[in-house]
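Human: You know discrete backbone vocabularies at least as well as I do. Show me how you would write down a chain together with its backbone fold. No explanation is needed for now; the record alone will do.

Assistant:
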Amino acid sequence: MITRRTLTAATLAAAAMPALAKPKSKPLVIAHRGASGERPEHTLMAYRLAISEGCDFIEPDLVVTKDGHFVVRHENEIGGTTDVAARPEFAARKTDKVIDGEKLSGWFTEDFTLAELKTLRARERLPQLRPGSAKFDGQDVIPTYQEVIDLAKAESRRVGRVIGTYPEMKHPTYFAGIGLPMEQRLADMLKVNDLNSRTAPVFVQCFEVAPLKAYGLIGKARRVMLVSQGPAPVDVKSAAGIKAIAAFAEGLGPEWPLVIPTTGGVLGQPTALVREAHAAGLAVHPWTIRAENAFLPKSLQRGTSPADHGDAIAVVKALYAAGVDGVFSDFTALAVAARA
């Protein structure tokens, strides 16, 4: 990658913040768990690769340790993303829990101290679909959110452009219920790192309404309401529902088929979601673009295996054409190429 000379943090902030605060012609590329299609998700190596491929933001999912630290994992259950199952010293920690109504069996971050978690090694969550990424199993550890922030700042200086972080509060109601609330902890961390403003390179995201509202009372970073195609706490298929989100968030993160639906395995015409969200003053950042056939509509699949890569660029281009303000992608280079 060609880089400019290293700039000071102050110069970077002055030059880039207005564009980040209200992206217009250039949609943001958000590296979903890092370059997670190419490296084990939520590792510093995945974030570094995504930055080298041109992302604007790196996305860490936040869960909490027994001693109150934010670590970065897709879920608080870590059996699928670390080598904990092969560690005899932690065999007795395996347990059954109900998280947001779902019964799970495994190992959970809230039962480990940060020091204990740091002894584990990260691994690819989808090795059958991503064997290339699985080759990097065991090479990295679980990062803290502070380490991700530090990486983003260091890489911003190195590449001469601002790299933001896009933290998601995972299961905040559950964590509050076991005495490990997230909102104040996150607000304090962003304040300590000089990221407590509407123009800072950070978005706080969540699938739950109440935590986003609570965060807004104590922190100033922009908030994004995440919504899936299935049952959701807010109806994004109506203008009234989108206006309700605008009362407590600055952005909307819909699952991408809510913007570009598919019928009979073919991409359809855009829904009214982007237009109505923009009318309400919301930025729109759909999730998640993945290249494997397993995640693409039939007409865009190529080859015969679910792990083969199809025409994911067609999805990204359709989203850009629909006027979205950014996209989440497991394959950073793909989203950057489509934008170019």
Q: What stands out?
A: The CA atoms of residues 100 and 147 lie 28 Å apart. The chain is about 30% helix and 15% strand.
